[in-house]
Design a protein that fits this description.
single chain, 191 residues, alpha+beta, 21% helix
């Protein structure tokens, strides 16, 4: 029965793109009260199947969406023979998401970062941080909203640099403060 409950939680996650609440777990498992749900969640946390973020919300700890990574490479030049072979299962969260409570996806609007291969309509996976380094692509809050740009630091100050020559760098001013919010981890583009 325990595996059935796990499968129902995974199905909920895949369908809703989020973990169920305790009430929703009670509903999808058919458990009659919250007490058995708390025991079930405790057992799942103990097994490392799920966890809790800093706010106590349930988060997946094991991959619910792992994919196969073949050991074979693919040529970006001339074609190379590719053999069907089974590879290891990988979880993209392991590569891209260190802390799901600090990680989110934003859709990009505009072309100021096109020379960094970030195009209008792309999405970026970003991670909130307080540690920003020169040259990183960051999300910053300006007076008129959020923007994605290269962070440039000098000995005296910092500014935001677009990756498109038709736009000018953004310098902090008394009227336009720059608050660094997150670092871009990867670009997501649907072809």
């Amino acid at each position: 029965m325990f595996e059935t409950y796990k499968n129902k939680i995974v199905a909920f996650y895949k369908s809703n793109k989020r973990m169920p609440s305790y009430s929703e777990i009670m509903k999808i498992t058919g458990l009659k009260s919250k007490s058995p749900v708390f025991k079930l969640v405790g057992k799942l946390v103990e097994q490392g199947f799920i966890g809790k973020d800093a706010n106590g919300k349930l988060i997946p700890k094991q991959s619910f969406n792992s994919i196969t990574r073949l050991s074979q490479t693919v040529s970006a030049g001339y074609g190379a023979a590719v053999e069907d072979e089974v590879g290891e299962k990988v979880d993209l969260d392991d590569w891209l998401v260190r802390d799901s409570s600090k990680t989110f996806v934003l859709e990009v609007n505009g072309d100021s970062m096109k020379d960094a291969s970030i195009l209008d309509g792309d999405s970026v996976l970003v991670e909130r941080t307080t540690n920003f380094k020169d040259g990183q692509i960051v999300v910053a809050l300006l007076n008129d909203g959020y923007t994605v740009k290269y962070l440039r630091k000098t000995q005296k100050s910092m500014y935001l640099e677009p990756a498109n020559k038709k736009y000018k760098p953004i310098y902090p001013t008394e009227d336009n403060q720059i608050e660094l919010v997150a670092v871009v981890k990867t670009i997501i583009r649907e072809l």
